[in-house]
Amino acid sequence: MPQAAQPNVSPQTLDIRPVAGALGAEIHGVDLSAELSEETAVEIRQALLDHLVIFFRDQDITPEHHLAFGRHFGDVLEYPLIKGLEGFPEIMTVVKLENEKLNFGGLWHSDTTYLEEPPMGSILVARELPPQGGDTIFANMYLAYEMLSEAMQKMLDPLKGISVSNLPKVTATRDERARVSGTIAPETVLKATHPVVRTHPETGRKLLYVNGGHTLKFEGMSEEESAPLLEYLFEHQTRPEFTCRFAWQPGSIAFWDNRCTQHLPVNDYHGYKRVMHRITLAGGKPA
Ligand code: OGA
Ligand code: MN
Q1: What is the pTM of this model?
Q2: 111 is catalytic
Q3: Positive or negative torsion for Cα 70, 193, 107, 275
Q4: N or C, where is the chain less crowded by C-beta within 10 Å?
Q5: CB-based neighbours (< 5 A) of ligand 2, an ion
Q6: Among 59-63, 82-86, 135-139, 235-239, whose mean pLDDT is lowest?
Q7: 83 alpha carbon to ligand 1 midpoint, in Å?
Q8: Which residues form the domain of 99?
Q9: Average per-residue pLDDT for the chain
Q10: 8 lies in a domain?
Q11: Structurally, how many domains does the chain consist of?
């Protein structure tokens, strides 16, 4: 019989290694297939708040472990538009097949901001990787806000942004998946209004909260009026110095704080298959 994994006893053994100046840290010294102590979970949550996205390497976890790990940090949600894994409705497969051209979510975005309560985070596990390529880039939205001029910050502070689920550039990236395993009629549009400058509910820090994947326009303005400023912000918020890049390996896991980051899965592995498992954690109403 295989031996039961040992519980992670000493939280002091967490070894946190930042991977870039802007955000991101690898966490070593923890086995996510073992029962996580509450102390270790608290340390991991603090690392997430400090580094915005955290990475684990060389983990060998089942879907059950994936869910159990996620539940230490909040309620696990089902993805609104696409059916989950057989037997694990909360686990969504993020996949690009050998013959597909577009990758799921293949543009800068934060996840499902067209919901009234967008998720606090997602935990993505690599299941099948191309021989090279298929990295994911993350960006820090606190920095994006802080690096704007004071006058621009003041102008943005009172504004609201409208997020929708059907911007053509993003629906194109999930059409194939929605066709195979969609859960709602393709013409259904989800829509939510959120502050353009949000205060993180745990850190109390302000951050820029628009994203190129879902933000359609500013509330009270036309799309045409909104476009120039939105385009500027989309460009600004993904400057290289606000980002880190994660190269996946078998056994890699990424856990991002969806409230204060954006991500971009790099679509540079045409002809190869890439399969990831994602779970999504409940968040609150942005304020
Ligand atoms: C996602 C997503 C990133 C990736 O799951 O929300 O954008 O690297 N995926 O596949
Ligand atoms: Mn995403």
Answers
A1: 0.92
A2: yes
A3: positive
A4: N
A5: 105, 111
A6: 82-86
A7: 16
A8: 15-281
A9: 92
A10: no
A11: 1
